[in-house]
Design brief:
There is one protein chain. The chain is built from two helices and 18 strands. It is mostly beta strands. Strands 1-2-3-4-5-6-7-10-11-12-13-14-15-16-17-18 form a 16-stranded antiparallel barrel. A hairpin with a 3-residue loop joins strand 17 and strand 18. It is globular and about 60 Å long.
């Protein structure tokens, strides 16, 4: 594949330019084990596995201005290279990345990635779900990502991320991101563009608020459902607002997306729109216990032709749970959720062990 050869060539040339500099590295292993059960089901399939054991492996190498970052997820259900990024540090504030990266317009996935230990709740909001787990928005792109920051307004921190790359395509199984290691020569992937702009009290603060934008061209491959068999591609625009407030013992995170889609069939074009939002609150109690609750809801989801391509999407969900950090970088979490999809509803309870090893 041309992009794979381009990435290999860029890696070789960049390493030559960085020769003589000391090599720095960071390694992080994020294992987890989870058991789940469902009840009060009125849907045929929930996509919930009874048992999931996985390990998320992250490796960073840096030599001078050259950076190489990779993330590989291995579980009893899948194995996938989630990210592979070759970066060049232009300055202390700016990095240009080439490769496969996470959608910069998803704040949740930018902060937590695939490591279960990094997020307080066991599950992520449905609108932020990964493509291969029933996600309805593109989350993985292969192309160019620019991340930067600047001090503005008396010490406040402005953070920016802009990206453009190969977007996922829509298949009978859902969204399918471009596979950098095993590219499909028969794929119809097109391009997508994303951006994030946020303002924070200082460089290291979790608190902040910002804007999210995305413009993606999603082609279809192998759709056999009669209602979608003539669908050629979807032009999906996404506009979002997010805010996070973190205090000593508590934290609140909220995000809202407004989607504007144009669905191009062989015989006509359909205008589509929907809005989805969530808010999660966390409070740290004594004895290293953290309680959390999340509310997710949507407007126009039931009538959206685009979301009908993902009939297991959670149009509304209520989540509550408790996390116990019982040892150094190890946690036990129990979570209860009530989910309403386009097909029906169900409840689930989960128990998870997660950890982080350096």
């Amino acid at each position: 594949m041309r992009f794979g050869r381009l990435l290999s060539l860029a890696l070789l040339l960049s390493w030559q330019l960085a020769r003589g500099e000391p090599l720095k590295y960071e390694f992080l292993l994020l294992p987890s084990a989870e058991g789940a059960g469902t009840f009060d089901r009125t849907v045929p399939d929930t996509q919930i596995h009874a048992a999931v054991v996985q390990a998320d492996v992250l490796l960073t190498l840096q030599q001078g201005p050259l950076k190489l970052f990779s993330e590989y997820l291995l579980s009893n259900h899948e194995g996938d290279l989630e990210r592979l990024q070759l970066g060049w540090q232009l300055s202390d504030d700016t990095v240009i990345w080439l490769g496969r990266f996470h959608e910069p317009g998803s704040v949740w996935n930018h902060d937590h990635h695939h490591g279960q230990y990094l997020q307080t709740s066991i599950t992520r909001p449905a609108i932020e779900e990964w493509e291969d787990l029933g996600g309805v928005l593109p989350q993985h792109f292969t192309g160019v990502l620019v991340e930067s920051g600047a001090d503005v307004l008396n010490g406040r921190r402005l953070r920016m991320a802009l990206a453009g790359g190969i977007a996922p395509q829509i298949t009978e199984e859902g969204l399918e991101a471009f596979d950098l290691i095993h590219p499909d020569t028969d794929s119809r992937h097109q391009l997508g563009f994303q951006g994030r702009l946020s303002l924070h009290p200082n460089e290291f603060s979790e608190s902040g608020a910002g804007l999210l934008l995305a413009d993606d061209e999603l082609t279809t491959v192998g759709l056999i459902e009669p209602a979608a068999a003539t669908l050629d591609h979807v032009h999906l625009r996404l506009y979002g607002l997010f805010a996070t407030y973190a205090h000593a013992d508590w934290k609140v995170t909220a995000t809202i997306y407004a989607a504007d889609g144009r669905m191009y069939y062989t015989t006509h074009r359909h205008e589509d729109s929907f809005s989805v939002g969530y808010i999660q609150g966390e409070y740290r109690f004594a004895y290293d216990l953290t309680g959390f609750a999340r509310w997710e809801d949507s407007i126009g989801a039931a009538s959206s032709e685009y979301l009908k391509l993902f009939d297991r999407f959670a149009r509304a969900r209520q989540v509550a749970g408790l996390r116990w950090d019982f040892a150094h970088r190890q946690a036990l979490t129990v979570q209860f959720a009530r989910t309403h999809t386009l097909e029906g509803q169900y409840s689930d309870i989960r128990l998870q062990w997660s950890a982080a090893f350096f």
